[in-house]
Sequence to fold (479 residues):
Amino acid sequence: MRGAGGTTDAPRHAVVIGGGVAGLLTARVIAERGARVTIVERDRLPAEPAQRPGVPQGRHTHVLLEGGQRALERLLPGAVGELLDRGAPRLGMPEDMLQWQAGGWYRRTAATAHVLTPSRPILESVVRERVLAGGRVVTLEGNEVVGLVGDADRVTGVVVRERGAGAATDRREIPADLVVDASGRGTRADHWLTELGAEPAPEERLETGLAYTTRLYRADPEPEDGPGAARYRGQYVVPDPGQVYGAVVLPLEDGCHLVTLSGLRGCEPPTDDEGFTAFTERLPHPLVREWLNRAEPLSGAHGFRDTANIRRRYDRPGRRPAGFVATGDALCAFNPIYGQGMTVAALNALALRGELARRGGVPAPRRLHRALLRSSRQAWAISAGADKNMPGATGNAAGTRAVERPVALYLARVQRRAGGDPVVGAAFRSVLALMAPSRALFTPRVLRAVLLGPDPAVPDRPPLRREADEAPEPASGRG
Fold:
């Protein structure tokens, strides 16, 4: 039913396609408005935290940025504390990390941002238990959505079938006042909308061919330089146009570590045991290789290749039905190497909550999608902005326009100074962690440091100890 201001009445029953983090948080927000919500999920959801086939990145490194932690707490109060209680590591940046970026090592000064590094099964388990506890959200497991019900003006439900069933007689319809596509980067929404006579969303795409491979390890308790010497908890080698190989070593809740290696098209990290370790020779420092040589591998290596940045512009003009909305990776998918996906899923859910509360119902599709895309705009600028500078970047969002070049040059100076200047570094981390808007990089104090200050001194070798533990490592200025 159409309401005032281009809205429809609050939904009585909604269907959410996909039971991952984005789908669960979306279901929570809709249920807060008094609706019943059915989550249609292809997998059979595990009773205890476990990997599941429908999460292709489940065995890889996951981080919840500080902006995501704040958003999650607003959606599910106490969830971050529960993750910590279940052992999710919390790392302070740059204090707890050995980070190589823009040609040098970061000083390990006091933390100004924090990341959580739980395994994907633990995170999903905490979110799922809380979302399903209220009774308004139920799951239809082992089923997949194969189409939408309705027409080009309005979606009125979904067509589902049991997973693996192919006969038309196995299909059935589930009526809904609102359908939310949270099925991830592999969404079939363009096909479903076309079947209704509607228009799919235009896509912005940018990819570098980046691929990554991850392996689980148990770390040696006696790291370099003797007992207690290396007081760091993770390693991060950030690729850039001049050094295209990346690595991250992060702890999990069970005392193990995940190691992820990355490379661009034609230089993908291998998935065999020997090749995985040998790939670290391409990194700018032997630190990761030395760590691997001391650690015990606990799994094989798992690769992942689907890393394009894709933004689906449902906010642009076109004939699209009311009663349908996309969120999470189905709306805006990022190169996973930047660790933004779960944080943006939470920010999308907050944006949806705000629009539903503000409008007193479900806003018109374009208006609602504009709000959701605004909540992911900064993450897109970070991910796509970095990738468009990488060698071999392709897609209709590749390339830097002339008007963007002054800002790109300024941001390059920011990155060069972030590792050694605490003022610039704190602002840089606040933006990357999606805690502060991009304008935090343009305050007078940061501008002075970036444009007028000398290149700060940075460690010339990995700073194994925090600066709070001892005098800074020998440092040198960078030209």
Observations:
- Confidence is low (pLDDT under 50) at residues 1-5, 472-479.
- The longest helix spans residues 365-387.
